[in-house]
Amino acid sequence: MAAPKSIPVSIHIVRGQRVVLDSDLAALYGVETKVFNQAIKRNLRRFPEGFAFQLSGEEWLILKSQFVTSSLGHGGKRKLPWVFTEHGALMAASVLNSDRAISMSVYVIRAFIEIREQIAANAMILKRLAEIDNTLLIHDASLRDIYKKLMPLLAPPPPTPHKQIGFHP
Fold first, then answer.
1. Of 23, 30, 74, 85, which has the fewest CB atoms closer than 10 Å, so is most exposed?
2. pTM above 0.70?
3. What is the domain extent for residue 30?
């Protein structure tokens, strides 16, 4: 099932983990961010560090600089947002327990899986490129050796003194 086009869900890297913002998940699951976060806070035991965590002020500023949002003091978020890993996003759907949340959780999990597959594919491509680079370096050394051996053979022969035929004054 594809997510509605009007609800962008961005996966970010924070603290070395791929995460989704609370506001993105709330929109995806069809609830207000405030309602979403209240449900999370009522069930915090379901969200250990590997599932969800609240951003620090510095992390939020860095993340906020990557997309346009209002500032914290002027109509924007007054509290630091929560972020959810793949497992946290799935757990959030179970906490909300609505039909939309359940169906959209499948979408979120598929998005994380797709990113994981892309990273694995990129790693395989990088490994293959390293192998090709190594092969090219070996061939380059061999070609230089052949070139050095051919250069003396391709040079014109040195002039040899020869006897002149005919009348010599």
1. 74
2. no
3. 11-116
